[in-house]
Amino acid sequence: MLTQHETEVPLPVLATPQRESRGRARRPLQRLVSAPWFLPVLLAFALGLYRCTSIVLWWDELSTLDIAERPVSNILTTARHVDAVHSFYYLFMHFWIAAFGHSILAVRLPSVLAMCGATVCTAMIAQRLFDRRVAVISATLFALIPGVARYATEARSYGFVVLGSAVAFLLLLRALEKSTRGRWVAYGAVLAVTGALNLIALTAVASHLVTVWLTARSRGRRSMFRPFLLVVFGVVVLESPIMIFGMMEARSQLGHLPDTSLSTLPTMWEETGCSTAFSVIVLLALPVLLTHRRRVAALTVFSAAVLPVLVLWFVSLNGIGFGYFARSLLFVLPAWAMAVAAAVDRLKGPNPAACLAIVLVTALAVAHDQVVLHTELSHFDYDYPGPSVVSEDYPAAADIIEARYRPGDAASFAGSPHLDLGVNYYLPADEQLRDIFIQQTDVQTDSLVPEFCTDTAACMAKAPDRVWMVESGDVVPYTTERVDWEFSLMMTYRIVEIWHVDGITLTLLER
């Protein structure tokens, strides 16, 4: 028994090895779940995968598959003729397809994962510039932007450009916090890779320059400019071959584009996030952002959100109309999301209700855009909400052909490589249709366009008894065929049946 003067000393609780191991296992999981980007990444992943395999591949994605499945030597040779600015992405996709195949999910998954990575970077940048609350809102708003989901489900380099640009910006902030050779080299390397994926992404350097200037001014350290300028100079030197080939190919590849004017700027702004509603929300947020108590952070985000758009517009005024390719400006969307989140923080401070309200308002405002951009033929609205190209329902056309296919069948795709690639992609491997008027394929010519027959009669002599005439648009048969092809087909074959699907007219011909 204890006496009145004695006290009971509790025995220490010894942790068992099992408890220690469970505790160690829980800690990384707890850190993961509590990260400001965790839930936003799940949202971005869900929206990126939603109907991912139902949305029909469109022209640009078909070009990705066409070039990426060529041997590496052919990809490099093709870059000398066309799409040099995308060659780095094609090389990546070549090895990705070799490893995971060319199903719709396989070829689009890298873009989904890239946008998820950009969501993480958005939260990390916002937390570094502001705080955790702004980081969570920023990442959530970024995941909700219709343009993010739209280009997360596209087998092109845009998702990687957004990710690379966000990583480069994050590395720049780290280099400005502690200027070391390793941090500046890392920033330069990521910036160079991002520029190799899409040269337009280098317009972000204008906002990076403002960030360096703001930081140097606030700390009284002008020496920060020297490593930054050296890195940018090195990146320009590295990118110069792509710049030269890209400019040589631009006119022939893009064709004639309308002249850029003052009225082009609002269109660029509207189409960048694929949502009129969200572009208006950002415009309303920007003036409020400039009054934020964290002046340097606010100006940094403002320049990242606005300057690349203005630079591209100005360049387009005096050259090729790149302003009509607003999807190349997707990399500003993390800054747009941060601008809105910081504006709410400026107006309402640490108010959970206000944070939830802006997320709900944004979700409702962009709901219609999200629905439209997840329909089967939505990828043909490549400048949504602006004008689109005529959509072509390749799976529907392929279903008609597959149900009536006979061994030996061939086709005339009216000189359209898109129809050729699209319909054959959705046909079984043993039912591929060769174009009777092609003399050399685009793979053999190291381009995106095949070489067509110069001697129509010789090509017709090799044609089989049945030919599928596949034409773009809801047209009368032979409408889009070349005159000499039309005459030869009419003289050699009779029409068996005609079908019309979205954007495609199918005519079965029999000798």
Report on this structure.
- The chain has helices at residues 17-34, 38-49, 59-68, 72-79, 87-100, 104-129, 132-144, 146-152, 158-177, 181-197, 204-219, 225-254, 264-272, 276-289, 295-317, 333-348, 352-365, 367-372, 394-404, 417-426, 456-461, 483-492; strands at residues 410-412, 438-440, 451-452, 466-472, 494-501, 504-510.
- Helix 2 (38-49) crosses helix 8 (146-152) and helix 6 runs antiparallel to helix 7.
- It is mainly α.
- The chain starts with 16 loop residues before the first helix and ends with a strand.
- A hairpin with a 2-residue loop joins strand 5 (494-501) and strand 6 (504-510).
- It has a four-stranded mixed β-sheet. A two-stranded antiparallel ribbon has the order 2-3.
- It folds into two domains: 31-380, no CATH class; 394-510.
- It has 22 helices and six strands.
- Helices cover 61% and strands 6% of the residues.
- The model is unreliable at 1-7 (pLDDT under 50).
Please supply descriptive tags for the structure shown above:
single chain; 511 residues; 2 domains; two-stranded antiparallel sheet; 22 helices
Briefly, what is this?
The protein is mostly helical and 511 residues long. It has 22 helices and six strands. It has two domains: 31-380, no CATH class; 394-510.
Terminal Cα span: 112 Å
Gross geometry: elongated
Task: Give the helix tally.
Answer: 22
Tally of structural domains: 2
| Residue runs with pLDDT of under 50 for 5 or more positions | 1-7
Q: How many β-strand stretches?
A: 6
Q: In which range does the helix fraction lie?
A: 55-70%
Gyration radius, to the nearest Å?
A: 28 Å
The profile of the biggest β sheet is: 4 strands, mixed
Name the beta content range.
Answer: 5-15%
Strand order of the largest sheet: 1-4-6-5
Order of helices and strands: HHHHHHHHHHHHHHHHHHHEHEEHEHEE
